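Forwarding the complex inputs:
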Amino acid sequence: MNSASQRKVSQVNLGEIPLILISDCFGDHRIVEVTLPRPVTLADLPNLSNVSQCTVLKDLPRPFFRLDCPQRFLLTGIANEPRVRFTLRAAAITQAESIVLQAIAELMGLPALHRSPHLS
Amino acid sequence: MAIDEKAVVSACNQLPLIGNEDGLIPAFGLYLSRHYADFYNLSSFEAVRQIEAQHPAILHQAEQGLVEAGMLCAFYTFGGIMLSQEWEAVVMPMVETVDDWVAGIVAVVNSFGWGKWVIEGFVPGERLEISIANSYESTGWLSRYENSSRPRCYLVKGGCAGIMNLLYQGDIRQRPNLTPEYFEKCFHSPDSFRCEELTCRTMGDDVCRFVTTRMTSAFDSSAL
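Prediction (whole assembly, two chains):
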């Protein structure tokens, strides 16, 4: 297996939510790491729509979750921690930020999030 | 070391390692390519055989190129794994010292089906000895060709060097950016680690054995 990962080539603030865009050797930002306003709990996971597969390893000392949303992304994270990672599908790359923000809003039960106008 | 390899493999095996509609496998915080199990072996071995037959003068460079590809793979794949949330969830709770990172990544590798890696010897910051009784490359070679006159596990050599370089030449624990510049620092400094394959199943040996040391150290295989 070969992989592609190169960390943190740029960082922007969207509202109060920092995003780290991670590039890879495919030449795109396919991976987005987000520090959410609060830790994610397992009770938050059902809030996300269009999940085809939900994997939760509850027995680990730090329970891990993995939510697969076809055509959009794979969301991974550790329960009760605020940092999550979106691994985007090719079809979602051009709309990465809006898709990620929509997912964050769903997951956290927040109002719709928009990119800050002063950031371009 | 405090790593419970059985627990790591068990946890990793619960994570879906399946391709998506893009033909890629999202796992361990990065993308893995999806292809036939023996595709890499066929590509690399046939390339070497063609070069050996037609351009023997550059055979050494060609084989070194495959090891370099293995080091790049280790840099991005092993490095990416050690920066992933899967790593934080599964391995980090067991980690007590930097040395545990070595056993941790070997345990993760053993969930991939590349063969059973066993740490035979380890001197922190100096030396790593690995044996593999069923390495992916040697199995591929033996399924297709006669015994070889020299070792053939190019990818594993890059992988072993990668583990030591990521931990003791660089410091993956500091969550560095995995940039080309950081790769150069880790892998192409005068005292970076390099791996030698001492025995190989493709040569008729029972197992493949690898020893990784700094390029500046005097190589000593007597301990094996």
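Chain B touches chain A through 35 residues (CB under 8 Å).
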